[in-house]
Amino acid sequence: MELDRFDRALLDALQRDCRQPAESLGEALGLSATAVQRRIRRLKSEGAIEAEVAVLAPETMASLVTVIVELAFKQGLTAAIDAFKREASAQPEIQQCYYVAGEYDFVLVVVSTSMADYERFTRRVFFPNDNIARFRSTVVMDSVKRGLQLPLVPPAV
Description:
The protein has five helices and four strands. With 157 residues, it is an alpha+beta fold. It folds into two domains: 5-45, Arc Repressor Mutant, subunit A (Orthogonal Bundle); 58-139, 2-Layer Sandwich (Alpha-Beta Plaits). The longest helix is centred in the N-terminal third of the chain and has 13 residues, at 33-45. The mean pLDDT is 92. Helix 2 (22-29) crosses helix 3 (33-45). It is elongated. It has a four-stranded antiparallel beta sheet. A hairpin with a 6-residue loop joins strand 2 (94-99) and strand 3.
């Protein structure tokens, strides 16, 4: 997909706040509101914009536990890896799942309502999987930075 400087600037602005009116976006980018709307439609249809969602502040929710989990598989079989990717995608507790190179095969970000809930999650998802050799859990004490914004434009100097 070819992105010009207007597309990148538009995507950057939408990542920060997707509720901005086309008129405001156009004024900031030097485009008409119609051009902004046309670009947004194209970016959605081409898959550059996957979704528009509300980002919740975890500290305002009931007590949540975030755990970083590293998984090592016994064998790196393609079928086992693909099966785990499907399984991870289906688990609402798994917020992020990365297939990685190195000592571990996957790194997960898991959110649970309690440590007991996290233990139930591990027993339900990890223990029945005969291909998981081991997993290591690291409990997050504080979220210093979190986000999904991609760096599309160079930072101002």
